Each structure stands twice: as C-alpha cells, then as structure tokens.
Amino acid sequence: MRFFKFTLALCLVFVITLSTVFYNRSSVVTSIVNNFLTQHHSALTCIDFDINTDFNLLITRLCIDSPYADIELIDSLVEWRFEPSRIDVDKLSDAISAINIAAVTVLAKGDIQLPESPTSRTVKLSELPTLIRKQLHDLALFSIPIDLDIQTFNYQPFSNKKTNKNHTYQGQFSAHAQRLLFTVANQKKEHILSLALAKRDGDISATLATDLAQLRPLLVQHPKALPLSLSTLLINKSWSVTGKLNSQLDWHKKTLSMTNQLSDFSFKTSPGFSSLGLVALDASFAWQANLTDDKLHFDFTADDNQSNNIQLAFNSEKLIESLTAQTVDQQIISVLIDNAISTLTVKPLDSLKIDFTKKTVTSDGITIISSNLHGPIELSLSDLLFNFNDDPVITPNLQKAKFSLTAQASIAQLQPYSMQPVKLSITGGIEQHSDIWQLNLAQGTTIELAQLSLPSVKPASGIKSLTQASNAKAQLNVTSLISRLHGNVAIPKNDLKSQSKNSEPVTFKLELNNQVSQLHYPKILQVNGLELNTKILGSIDNITINTKMIADNIPIAAAKFTGDLRHPNVVVSAKDVLLTDLLALKVELPIELKLIDGNIDYHLSGQLKNNEDLWANPMILALTVQDFTGEVEGIWLQDLNWQQKFVLQNGQIKSIPEKSTTLYNLTIAKIETGTPIHNLATTTFIDFSQDHIKLLARNIHGDLLGGRFDIAKAQWPFSKELLVKIKLTKIDLEKLLELDKKQGIVVTGKVSGNFPIYYDGEYFLIKEGYLHNVGDGIIQVYNNPAVEELKASSTELKLAFSALENLHYHHLSSEVSMADDGYMLLDTAIKGRNPDLDNDVNLNLNLSYDLLGLIESLNITEDFESKIIKGYTKKELNN
Asked: For the chain, how many structural domains are there in total?
C-alpha cells in the first residue's frame, strides 16, 4: 500500500506540474513542486517537460530527492481527458486520464519501515472470514482514478554492506481501474515475483507466482518491513530454501477460491539451525482452498500426474538427544533407538475443513511413511476432528481420530525371548470425552511374534527333582504367536480433576485371541496349535480377565484373574477334559500310558502377591480323575477315580487333609496283575518338598484272591518309624493255587492273618506274622508225577501220600517271619482227616520262600508241592 501511496503522490506532482505549465517557466514549476514535496521532506532536483500536439504532458526527466530514496523518472507521458477551452485549474487532477512512464530508477537510502496502524487490533478467529470478505469486497470496489503504467523500473535496496551495493531489481508495474500487474526480477533477470489482478462486476481474479529462493534475498534486505520474528529467521544463514509457488485466486459471489501449486520445494538446514542437526524437507504439493460463509475448505486431492508428498530427512541420533533433553519417557526413547528412522514422508488425505462458527477443524487425515532396518512403517490418521478457541492463532484440540499402523519393530524387552521383530498391524481410533480419552482398537488389530524361546520357569523344589535330569537346559519353543485384539481403553485426562481422589482409573474392555503355532517343550509337550481367547474388563485396581485355552482344538483350561492386577486373584480350571484328548497332544510322560477312557477336572486358585517368585505365592490345586481305564506301564487299571487337593507354597506341594463325605479319595475297580485286585480303595497324601517325593496312603483295602486285604497305613519311601500291617481276610487258597496250576494238587479253603512289615533303613523284616484257616478245607494230591515216583519207591510213602489224596483239614495255621536275607519263613501246622482212609492227619511244615521272587511271580504251588513231599518223607522216615 505504501507503494500505491507513493505512486499517487507522484501523480499529484504531475498535476501540480501541469497546473503551472501554462506559465512556461521551469523555475516557477520547480518552486511550486518543492513547496508540496517539502511536506514529505523531499525536493525536486530536476525536471524537463513539454506539451505535444494533443496537449499531453511529456516529462523527459524528473528527479526527486527524499529521505527514503533518490527517484528518477524517464520519459513520462501524462494524458488528459478535457477540452482546452474548458480548463478548470482547481480540478486539473481529475482531468488526468493516464500516466505512462518508460523507466523509473529508485535508489533506497534507508530501510523501508511500514507504519503501524493506530486502529489495528487483534482479530479473533471467528471474525477472520468476515474480515477477509470485507477486504476483498473493498478491493473489488476500489478503483484507481488514473491509469498508471511503468514499463520498467530499477530498484536498489539500501545496504550498509559494500558487497550488496550492486544488488538491483527490475520489473514492471501497471495499475488500471480493472487490472493490476506487478513483476520483479533480480539483476540476472531471474524471476522473483509476479502478481496479476483483474476485476469485473465485483469479482476478482488474481494470480501469484514466486521463486522462493530468489524471494528470500529481497526480503532479507527489508528487515524493518517485516515482523521481527520473520526477519530474524530470514537472515539466519543456517538454512536454505528453493522452490516455486503458484497461486490462482478467484472472488466470485462472496466466495473465495484458491488453487495453489508448490513445486520442487526444498528446505535444508545446517547443524546449528535446530537440535535435530541436519534437516532436509522436500515437497511437491498442490491444494485448493475455498472460503464460503464461515467455512474454509482445503482440498488436497492430487491430479493424476501429481503426488502430494512432503519428505523429511533428519539425524536420528540428534532426535534421540533432543527427546532425552525433554525428559521423554525412557521406554519410548528405547523403542526409537532400537528402530531408528531418519526419513518421513507425509501425504495429506483428500480434504481439511475449518468451521469458524462451530470452531472445529475436520480432516480426512494424513499418511506418514517411514522405514527402519526391518522394513516399511506406515501410520495413517483419518477422520480427524479438532476444536479451537477464539484466539488469533489456531491451537487445535483433538476430539477424535481414527488410526492405522503397520510396521515391524524391535522391542528390547522381548529380545531375551526372540531376536525377530514384532509385526504390528493396529487399527482403531481415539476420542476425547469430558474427563477421559477413549482408545478404541478395531477388529483386525494384530501383533505377531516369531521364533520365541522361553526359558523354563523356576520350578518348586518338590518337583525340581522330577525334571532336572532330563530338562536341565530345556526351553519352551514357539514358532509364532499371533495376538488379535479389539475393544477399548479409557484413560483419564491429565488435569486437576483426574488427580482427585474420585478420579476414574484407566479402564479396559478388550477381547483377545492369541494363537500359538508349533509349541514344543523338549521331552514334555508338543502342540501344533494353541489358542487363548481372553476378555479383559475393569481397571488396574479392579480387573477381571477371563481366558479359555484350546490346544489342537481341545479345550483344556479356563483362567480367571480378578482384583488388583498387580496382585490378582487367580483361578485356572478345567472340567471333564478327556484324558485321551490330552494324550493326543503328544504329551511325553515318564511312564507309558495306553488309555481307553477317563477324564480330569482341576482347579488352581490363589493370589499372586509375589511377582518376582511365582512359586512363593500360596496356591490351592484340586485334582479329580474320573473313570480312568487303560494300561499304566503294562498294568491294566479299570475305573480309577481319584480326588486330591494340594497347597502350593514356598516351593512345596502338599496334599491338604479335608473332611469329605467319602472315606476314600482313590478307588480302582480292577488292577490286572498276576493276581488281580478288585475294588481297591485308599486315602492318599502326597508331599513334594525339598527335592523329595513322599506318598502316604491310609485305610488301604481291596479284594484279592476271593478275599480281602487291608493296610492301615503305608508310606513311600519307606520309613523305619512306620510299621506296615497287612491284614488278609478269607483268602481263597484254591484261587491262589490257580495262579500257577500244577498237575495233581488241589487245595480249597480260606485263610486270614496279619503280616507286620518293618523297615530298618536297608532291609524289610516280618515279625510275628501269622495265618490261620477260616473254616474247613481240602488238600488233594493225586496223579502228580513226583508223588507217584515217591509212592513207587516206598510202601510207607505210598501210605502217607495216599492220606493226602483227600485230606479234609480243620486246622491250618502258620507263624510268619522274614529276616534281612529276604526269605520268608512259615512255621505251618495242618490238622485234618482223610475220610477215604478213615484216619487223622497231623502235619508240621517249616516253609521258606524268596519273598521278592514270590512277589514277582506270585507262584507258590511248586514250592508248596516240594515242601509237602519233603515233609511227609521226613515224617515217614521218623516213624
């Protein structure tokens, strides 16, 4: 505007000059013009003029000396629009129709400083559209009273530096009632700035083109004409800029439209410019802007041959140093260090809208692209909504946004388990409410880990001895872990209200699906696919986490965490899990199992108060095995049922005695051994502690050989302090001999008794054991080859064995003992009668058995046979 004012002042000079032409005296003209210029501290130093045949004024040369500049006008033509016969001296200025100047030279004497407007005030943002419309409306109505054309001008800015004395600029200027043209170039005739404006019927059309690299030196030479912050930035030599800006402005029916093109833009800095060190910003950018009423709309939709990209390059190490100096969270800094990036590409999406009435900013979003050592990183922000206060500068406050992130990243906390990067694919949104931020995670959010190797958790001392030999260096290996999650997280705002005692904590409402592929624990477990479905609800202080675990399509567990997440209550349970399904998971057991049927229930509960040593937390484990049928190490077990409750604490696992409506917690319908056992029942107590296993059984009983056995208490490993009493009731001798039938020997009847078994720390001993018959029985020895041979050798033996061919006994007793040599001694007495011979029989036998061999084979018939023969032989010889 100062340029326009100065131009109009020149026109006034021409008018005054014209008013004195008719006096035709140069000295008079000079005096009159100087009288006017004195008001502006200026003076006319030269003037040459004439009048042509059309009464137009020809000024060959005109010189003005002012405090700001020396001005010289060459070949100026002033055209009139009046008739000489009707000249009104007082209105000569209105008679000027045009001023044409061939050349203007301006040599600045000082810095140009624009005067401050005394009526200027801070404009509110809500008033900005109205102000813009008013300015454009006034510009559309503004009309220059005369046409002014400057074919060429040369301008030399003021400078105290001798090196800048030759920096001159040249250009053109044209101002008419309906159009304006202004161009400027440097002394090398390199384009700097051009402005073309046209008006018609209240509409305005304007174009602006500038070369940023050439514009900067021009602005630098006029620091006082600019705001201090801008001039300080411009004179800073630690940065450079190149690029071209082209703008098209249209004002039509109170609507402002702008089309802008920024091409080949480049901004580079040297190390001293910012804390980021060397920075390079490159862009090729096109956008349109439209102001209608109180709405400003930016359209970033690129043409087919134009991509709107902003590329930023920086020093990643300097970025880390800057963030560290700003005390940014160390975990964030660690992630940036492990995933160093040095470039960013920013792409705006579609459009951005500013509503000055509602004070909102909405954006279709931006896409930010980068890369690290592991591959590309892409972050998309969309459907952005901001609001702002009615301040002079927009300070947007985010209200909601959607986001999408795809990347591969190294996480230091996971490197002990996997050296592979974490694959991230996260989609969702964020919303601001009155007192919270709500983070929403959408379906499709995934986190993937590969090649995991998890070190074994330190086991309780009680079970350490079971696994340390074979799994001292065993690790749990996982091919991949994929987590899919969705839901929302509510985060309180960091303000005074959220710091009060009644503020809401961070709350979660999430659903997770974790899929593990190829889980392998050497010599323990092999699972092809493990799936965990989890629901998280609540806050850190009061959380509820429910998880269902499925292994190879088999539901094997349900877990629940409640309470304070730092010290949660834990329940892990399963019900009616088929044991055959569990074995199908390729569980490698220390014993051989061949199952037909059976299921298991378990329930683990407790509170995790010690997060550093999980085994130090007290936990209760309840196990129930039902309807177990199959082979265990080749031994057939049928219909086994077992219930046991344990406490896990301080590295120990112990059974918990509990009152129950049932007398026994372990029952087995049948054990198929050399001697089948039926209806076994007992109460067990198990203790894993201090690297030892202790098994205690009480009230053991079962059906054996047609009778029953009872053991009040037994312990493994055996103890010197514990006496094991085996009580036998009504054992069927016929069934006993059926275990290994021998030709010609039949024994019937039943016996009962007790076997007290002692352990001296090295050997097993039996003291004061006994057996006795329950009711009468029969012993028949006939058609036995060995007996027949003895009969043939002696008449006496023949008579004796004849008595055993049908011995009906009424008394059978035996005193039982066993020394440390492992042989069991039976001092046996048999009394009865042979009805066929009608004589009584009394037999005393001392029997010795290898108990270990007996237990192994459960075969006594052969030894019984030989003892009977030897006993009778000895008796006959004594007789």
From this structure: 2
